[in-house]
Specification:
Layout: E1 4-11, E2 23-28, E3 34-41, E4 50-54, E5 59-61, E6 73-75, E7 80-85, E8 90-96, E9 101-106, E10 124-126, H1 130-137, H2 141-147, E11 152-154, E12 167-172, E13 178-184, E14 187-192, H3 204-210, E15 225-227, E16 230-232, H4 250-260
Parallel strand pairs: 1-3, 10-11
Antiparallel strand pairs: 2-3, 4-7, 5-6, 7-8, 8-9, 9-12, 12-13, 13-14, 15-16
Length: about 260
């Protein structure tokens, strides 16, 4: 775990209305140390977060399936530590002993899970089970890629919100490799995520395309300009970041996280 640090901050909502403004960011030090960090702003109700440690060899089971059947059952290959919600072993963020980190993020309006098939109940998970399953079973991003072929993530209703939680996930490991996993059109979709940044809706590839609108951003100050015989220079530090969006929408938070990282 020394090569990767999970820093999960649970903050109260800063608005009177509900907020789902989660932002994930990855920082890489000069020595190669990778730090995955995130904010979690959930303003609808108290998630009752708790820190949970699960050792290797622990028997675990997924949520009950839509027809009442038992979901997937497994024994943990790796010990994990993470932050859970609602008094259940449902991880919002979790890291295993190999340094693999799985972050859970809200994705309303764009998530469509695989259709539940009763004959496949034994290999099916609810979306809330996904992070814990991945972290306890796989030691690298490379291993996770193949995992999606062996399990199904289906729409299991979470009583606290009355719907299957619409989620997507960032998975990273100490090498700095990162992917985003989304369920689009009833199929698992993997996006390469070398920037190590994630927010919420819309889909991840849209956010990457949107970065093309902000190519002017720079950590370097703008040079002085001469016009009409007068010289104009930046009023202070940070002029290279003029145009950085400052609102709290997912697209703007995504751009800011990329700029900061």
């Amino acid at each position: 775990m020394k090569h990767s640090v999970l820093n999960a901050v649970t903050a109260s909502c800063i608005f009177a209305t509900a907020s789902y403004a989660c932002t994930g960011i990855t920082l890489t030090g000069a020595d190669g140390t990778t730090i995955f960090a995130r904010t979690l702003e959930w303003g609808t109700f108290d998630l009752a977060p708790e820190i949970l440690v699960i050792p290797r060899g622990t028997k675990m089971n997924a949520s009950v399936m839509p027809d009442g059947a038992a979901g997937h059952e497994w024994s943990t290959t790796y010990g994990v530590a993470g932050i859970t919600a609602l008094g259940k072993p449902l991880f919002g963020d979790v890291m295993n002993e190999e340094g693999l980190v799985v972050g859970t993020f809200y994705l309303p309006g764009f998530t469509e899970y695989q259709i539940y098939e009763p004959d496949s109940a034994s290999v099916s998970l609810g979306s809330s089970d996904f992070a814990g399953f991945i972290a306890t079973q796989y030691g690298s991003v490379s291993d996770v890629r193949s995992a999606l072929e062996s399990i199904r993530v289906v729409p299991v209703v979470e009583p606290a919100i009355g719907i299957p939680p619409p989620l997507h996930f960032m998975v990273s490991d100490p090498s700095g490799e990162a992917i985003v996993i989304q369920y689009i059109g009833g199929k698992p979709t993997i996006f390469e995520a070398p920037l190590g940044v994630i927010t919420n809706a819309p889909n991840y590839d849209w956010h990457i395309t949107n970065l093309n609108n902000y190519l002017n951003l720079s950590a370097v100050a703008l040079p002085p300009v001469e016009a009409g015989g007068q010289q104009f220079a930046p009023l202070g530090a940070g002029s290279g970041m003029l145009g950085l969006p400052g609102d709290f929408t997912p697209p703007s938070r995504f751009v800011r996280a990329v700029a900061f990282s």
